[in-house]
Amino acid sequence: MNRLAHERSPYLLQHASNPVDWFPWGDEAFTKARIENKPIFLSIGYATCHWCHVMEHESFEHQAIAELLNQHFVSVKVDREERPDVDRVYMTFVQATTGSGGWPMSVFLTPELKPFYGGTYFPPASKWGRPGFGDLLTEIDRVWQVEPERLRASADEATGQLAAAGVEAPAAVVPAAPVLEQTTSQFLAAFDRQHAGFGPGPKFPRPSELLFLLREHARTGRPQPRDMALQTLRAMALGGLRDHVGGGFHRYAVDRAWRVPHFEKMLYDQAQLAIAYIEAAQVSGDPFFIEVAEDTLRYVMREMTDEHGGFYSAEDADSVPHAHMREAGVRKSEGAFYLWTAEEITRLFGPDGDVVRRHFGIEPGGNAPVDPHDEFAGANILYVARGLEALAEESGRPAEAVAAVLQRARTTMFEARLQRPRPLLDDKVLTAWNGLMIAAFARMARLMRGLGAPGPATAAPYLAAARHAASFVRAHLWQDGSRTLLRRYRAGHAEIDGYAEDYACTIFGLLELFAADPDPAWLSWAITLQERQDELFWDTAAGGWFSTTGRDPHILLRVKDTYDGAEPTASAIAAGNLLTLSQLVDRPEWRDRLERTLRLFAPQLETMGRAVPMMAGVLSVYHSRPAHVVIVGAGSGALERALAVRYLPHVTPVTLETSRQQAVASLLPLVAGMAIVDSTATAYVCRDFTCLPPLTAADDLLRALSPVQ
Hints:
By secondary structure, the chain is of the alpha+beta class. The protein folds into four domains: about 5-165, Glutaredoxin; about 180-315 and about 425-620, Glycosyltransferase (Alpha/alpha barrel); about 325-420, no CATH class; about 625-705, Glutaredoxin (3-Layer(aba) Sandwich), CATH 3.40.30. It is built from 28 helices and 18 strands. It has a five-stranded mixed beta sheet with strand order 1-3-2-4-5, with helices on both faces. Strands 11, 12, 13 and 14 form a four-stranded antiparallel beta sheet that branches. Strands 16-15-17-18 form a four-stranded mixed beta sheet, sandwiched between helices. β17 (about 680-685) and β18 form a beta hairpin. The N and C termini lie far apart (about 65 Å).
């Protein structure tokens, strides 16, 4: 065992038995490097990372490579999900020097923590155009012994360049609306008209892109942005990216047609995609999108929820192949939990097997494309190859009978899959990702309440999940005395001071929860967190929010994320929060910070809005006459439903029963004087703290809220 055995990160614990003498990130490692004058080998990854597992098996479990590391380097292991501050600095270096990035990330540092060489995955011996890891270690040690000053000079230069590279100077004014039309044109130029999504494979589900396009449709009434978003969401849900048996979405598709996924499941994907499907349902009125959102959230409730209400981080792509896969020749373990053989379907379904095979595109020899590493030989990846009507026509059965077969099939396959070895569950609870998930459950609760769906399809379980998770974060990850939000909870322990994204995403979740459940406690906490986020992270000079506080001397650079990846930037989430808060709470400084942030991102918005779609979405709402609607009085169902089922991204709803009105008025003084009219529920539409005359009819309310100019 090495020092990682005492850590709580699942990723670090995976490496606790390596022969490498790993250190966690911290003073002990850095002191050893300085005293012994050794370079630091920094390895960054996360628990469900497939290629991290590969590099561990090939190199970190290899005795000869471990001896090289132990003799000539100080080896440090970092979980990027726990320490995004460390990851951001060195990922910026790797991307700047190699043109790409990813995990595992492998970086060599001076004892002063300055990087001089880096990359991602290195095979143990040279192949695929990558140097062998053992040879690389030998060469870096040789140069360090012979020319250490050359490496130090390179590290100093690289660090200086990283420090100098920052966001461009803010614009003088907030970008005008035509910038948004230009961004839509960029998406249109990249749109894959055959398979949906943008560009060739691999294709990542980047919900912030789709949310922007839906917002632009709402703002302008133009169909093109809506159609691109809906087609992409439909293609993802019908393809192999979605888990058609257990629900939820995999990380990305390696191909253009969304057929072959990388099988890990991340909480932040489930949260953002659920929101995107909810908004698609509101835009289109198509129940298909509601079904996908519900299916995703049910998966999270069933598989990804801590007994106390928090949400786990991820499920691995890898698992031990089960017997049927081994019979079919599947030798590697990525995706093994999710793959099927034609023979297995025949054994499970008998005469109904043909319908199941045709529906999911299952072939006798496997439907996965030929893979150079032969990972999926003989196996089938589920996707919707034929819909209900086609199956009914081909089989000669009534559509109702085919639907019953497919419904039974999913249950049967789910139960059969439970007998297989499961992928690893990363059971740490991350605050930022929980904030996104709280928002998704709160959104679904509002939509279900708006639909008034009877039976099991009600708002109650979704609202309960959002409340429980928010209460979990407050109880376990919020330190009220010091007003500090913590980053990670696992096995009864909360640790690591939160980053800007933790504050921003939690505020986002609380604002969505307040819209679904107008308890003043949620809004009060959101206001407190916004005040604290501004204290810790706001850049008074240029605007926007730094990712870190700048207090940790071991973090070389205090950076701001300037583009949206799998997760949106903290500044984009925070700007959206302020857009909502500034409609509710009369704080001129919040409106100013929102506009300064939009000005800060103006260069990206004006030249390559595709890189910052979440901020572009905020700008779209900013230009959409944002409003908040307060509904007072019992029996508000018709008014509340009208808001919930329509797509109104520029509207913040507050529905108050008389018993809560006074308590909410302590935070939002404007609501104190709002009274019901003619003894019926009444809506007040307010913009910039000026309200229209009260409305009691849903049609009048919707007309007053139209964002289209």
